From TrEMBL, chain A:
Name of this chain's protein: Cytochrome c biogenesis heme-transporting ATPase CcmA
Pfam families documented for this protein: ABC_tran
UniProt keyword terms in alphabetical order: ATP-binding, Cytochrome c-type biogenesis, Membrane, Nucleotide-binding, Translocase, Transport
SUPFAM superfamilies (UniProt xref): P-loop containing nucleoside triphosphate hydrolases
Family matches, as Gene3D superfamilies: P-loop containing nucleotide triphosphate hydrolases
Source superkingdom: Bacteria
ABC transporter domain sequence ranges: 5-204
Keyword Nucleotide-binding among UniProt keywords: yes
Species per Swiss-Prot/TrEMBL record: Alkalimonas collagenimarina
Lineage: Bacteria, Pseudomonadati, Pseudomonadota, Gammaproteobacteria, Alkalimonas
The keyword Transport is assigned to this record: yes
TrEMBL record, chain B:
Organism: Alkalimonas collagenimarina
Protein name as annotated: Heme exporter protein C
One Pfam family per UniProt: Cytochrom_C_asm
Alphabetized UniProt keyword annotations: Cell inner membrane, Cell membrane, Cytochrome c-type biogenesis, Membrane, Transmembrane, Transmembrane helix, Transport
Phylogenetic lineage: Bacteria, Pseudomonadati, Pseudomonadota, Gammaproteobacteria, Alkalimonas
InterPro entries in alphabetical order: Cyt_c_assembly (IPR002541), Cyt_c_biogenesis_CcmC (IPR003557), Cyt_c_biogenesis_CcsA/CcmC (IPR045062)
Automatic annotation (TrEMBL), chain C:
TM segment ranges: 20-39, 45-64, 96-118, 124-145, 157-179, 191-214
Family: Belongs to the CcmB/CycW/HelB family.
Xref: PANTHER family: CYTOCHROME C BIOGENESIS B-RELATED, HEME EXPORTER PROTEIN B
Gene symbol of the encoding locus: ccmB
UniProt keywords, alphabetically: Cell inner membrane, Cell membrane, Cytochrome c-type biogenesis, Membrane, Transmembrane, Transmembrane helix, Transport
Protein's job: Required for the export of heme to the periplasm for the biogenesis of c-type cytochromes.
InterPro entries: Cyt_c_biogenesis_CcmB, Cyt_c_CcmB_bac
Topology in membrane: Multi-pass membrane protein
Compartments (UniProt record): Cell inner membrane
Keyword flag Ribosomal protein: no
UniProt protein name: Heme exporter protein B
Length: 208, 245, 219
């Protein structure tokens, strides 16, 4: 059986510094890969490589047995990538930001109000996002995870600025996604709570 | 041919290839330039209308032609670099841009120096001079853009894109400037219409042109080698290549 | 998808009025400076009017385009759109359309007042409206390209001008030639046809270059 997602011999050089070399990873459906490492170890760079945003200096990435360079459209359609920045515009309201991403991912219409209520943002839907706190902005950004049906999620520090209850809710959504046969790659400094049966970790060490 | 070109995409092999080519290019460039320019500047006959000022043609025309040829080479390299994502070709675009800019500047300055005795003014809004000036702006844009990014790789790629966009625009700009020029000042350029060149002037001109081409290629080799070393400075082969010398 | 994106851009413009009001004011102020600089002689102004109007238009559109992608780049919107791929081109088209609606269209609307200030004759005035109507979309396309190219650059503003102004030259030449011809009572459909041709060519090719510039800038 071909792996859902795999990478072999990845190398990344940024500004003449080798971030990582000869990195291999595999990910099957229903698995969560947690990438750990110190600040500056190259976690975000690795995620950007895996999301197809930049090309590795060396190595190959496969999606369902195909090189991602050869199935870019199909790969991008199966991927939900949320980077280090939130991807929400501060001048827009939570509703408008969610509508924007729903259109971008071509998702069917759902009632955003109930979703916002679920995320603990009820009553804030008409405020521009620069009036919200960092954690509330992060929730607006992550709202698309409740809408999307992409099988592969790549998330950069999703728990940043979230409070405990929001983290619990997000992890519940993670489990739901994995149970439906999805896969995800996450960087985080926080340990994930128990209950992830298919948890893999990858430690990136800081190199000079 | 691709089989022959393919190994050259490796920085190390290209570096040594350019190194082997360089002495030959430089040597023949110096010889042909000396030969063509001495013939042209000292021994070719003066023009019956322009007397000795015509001799600037042996610098002006080759550098003007080269300014455009270099832009074409740069644009082809930029296209190759963007489509096939070959790093050495991206570096080649940045290596060749300043050479083209200098040729353009030489063509402009000699054009002005020629214009003073011929037209009685340093600067005439002549179609060819104006296009050349805009070409210089396009070159400077590519060079400035490449230097404006903190991430060198991004800057290089964006400069490639701009070189390509500029190349699509060069004919449009040239055509519109020519049209604009004929619209505004009919007579002033016809008085300087190109006469057919006599063979006694044509041969030194062609040899000078060849010399300029060889010089451009030689300088390109030098700059490409430097760019390769800069971009690959942490690779082990660079240390051994430089340590050996 | 494009309509949702256009609505988003319009909502943003409604909230950041300076983004489109300032270039418009800039256009008017530059036009007032010219008579003060070259003298109020009506005949001279009438001769110079086509060039003045178009140079002011170029500069004000350039001014408006600088901030075009800044916020979306800083917030990571562009990065996530590039990862998504399918939404990138609609986003680019929405940016072009709203850039024209917010900077090009106001120039067309205000041009009657400008024509009055500079003493442009009625025949030339129609030509001015037409060239602005055809030319400003082309200006928008090229300035969106410039903004996309310099998005991640450290020093955007002046660099953008250096890159994009040479590309405006054909447009400047043909647009002011059309107005001039109209002022002399000559037919100018030739110039207009060339302007339309340039607009269509740019509309076919430049969005691809913009999308690829955005991709390079986030890589």
């Amino acid at each position: 059986m071909t792996e859902f997602f795999s990478a072999q011999g990845l190398s990344c050089i940024r500004q003449d510094r080798v971030l990582f070399e000869q990195l291999d990873l595999t990910l099957n459906s229903g698995e969560l890969l947690q990438i750990q490492g110190k600040n500056g170890a190259g976690k975000s760079s690795l995620l950007r490589l895996l999301a197809g945003l930049s090309t590795p200096d060396d190595g190959t990435i496969y999606f369902q047995g195909q090189l991602i360079a050869e199935c870019l459209e199909q790969y991008a359609a199966s991927l939900c990538y949320i980077g280090h920045q939130s991807g929400i515009h501060e001048q827009l309201t939570a509703m408008e930001n969610i509508a924007f991403w729903r259109a971008a991912y071509q998702l069917p219409y759902v009632d955003s109000m109930t979703l916002l209520g679920e995320l603990g943002l009820a009553g804030l839907e008409d405020l521009p996002c620069h009036m919200l706190s960092a954690g509330q902005q992060r929730r607006v950004s992550l709202a698309r995870l409740w809408l999307t049906n992409c099988p592969l999620w790549i998330l950069d520090e999703p728990f940043t600025a979230l409070d405990q209850s929001a983290i619990q809710r997000l992890q519940y959504r993670f489990r739901q996604h994995l149970a439906q046969g999805g896969a995800m790659i996450v960087t985080t400094h926080q340990p994930l709570s128990d209950g992830f049966s298919c948890l893999k970790t990858l430690e990136l060490s800081y190199r000079w | 041919m691709f089989k022959w070109l393919h190994p050259l995409a490796k920085p190390e092999i290209l570096y040594h290839f350019c190194g082997r080519l360089l002495p030959w290019l430089m040597g023949s460039a110096v010889l042909t330039l000396l030969f063509g320019n001495i013939w042209g500047l000292a021994f070719s006959p003066p023009d019956y209308q322009q007397f000795d000022t015509v001799r600037i043609i042996y610098i002006h025309v080759p550098s003007a032609l080269l300014s455009m040829a270099t832009y074409t080479i740069m644009a082809i390299a930029a296209f190759t670099a963007l489509v096939w994502q070959i790093k050495v070709v991206q570096w080649a675009v940045l290596a060749i841009a300043p050479i083209g800019a200098v040729f353009t500047a030489i063509a402009l300055l000699t054009g002005m120096a020629w214009g003073k005795p011929m037209w009685g003014t340093w600067w005439e809004w002549d179609a060819r001079l104006t296009s050349e000036l805009i070409l210089l702006f396009l070159y400077l844009g590519v060079i400035a853009l490449a230097g404006a990014f903190s991430d060198r790789q991004t800057g290089t790629k964006v400069a490639c894109l701009l070189a390509l966009v500029g190349f699509v625009n060069v004919p449009i700009i040239h055509f519109s400037v020519e049209w604009w020029n004929t619209l505004h000042q009919g007579a002033s350029i016809t008085k300087f219409d190109k006469p057919s060149v006599h063979p006694s002037m044509l041969w030194p001109l062609l040899i000078s042109l060849l010399g300029f081409y060889l010089l451009m290629l030689a300088l390109f080799c030098v700059r490409l080698r430097t760019a390769i070393l800069q971009n690959e400075q942490h690779r082990p082969w660079v240390k051994s290549a430089l340590g050996g010398q | 998808m494009v309509s949702v994106f256009i609505r988003r851009e319009l909502a943003l413009l409604a909230r950041q009025k300076a983004d489109w009001l300032n270039p418009l004011l800039f256009f008017i102020i530059v036009l007032t400076l010219f008579p003060l600089g070259v003298g109020p002689e009506p005949n001279q102004l009438r001769i110079m009017a086509p060039g003045i109007v178009w140079i002011a238009a170029l500069l004000s559109v350039l001014l408006a385009s600088e901030r075009l992608f800044r916020d979306d780049y800083r917030n990571g919107v562009i990065e996530q759109l590039v990862a998504n791929r399918q939404a990138l081109m609609p986003f680019v088209l929405a940016k072009i359309v709203t850039n024209w609606l917010s900077t090009g269209l106001p120039l067309v609307v205000i041009s009657p007042v400008v024509a009055m200030l500079l003493g442009v004759e009625p025949a030339a005035f129609v030509a001015m409206m037409l060239t602005l109507l055809i030319g400003t979309p082309l200006l928008s396309i090229l300035s969106v390209l410039g903004a996309a190219i310099t998005m991640a650059a450290d020093k955007g503003g002046i660099l953008l001008a250096l890159l994009i102004l040479p590309l405006y030259i054909p447009l400047l030449i043909f647009a002011s030639a059309a107005i001039e011809a109209a002022g002399m009572g000559l037919p100018y459909n030739g110039q207009l046809a060339i302007l339309v041709a340039m607009l269509l060519l740019a509309f076919a090719l430049v969005p691809l270059a913009i999308a690829s510039a955005l991709r390079i800038n986030v890589s």
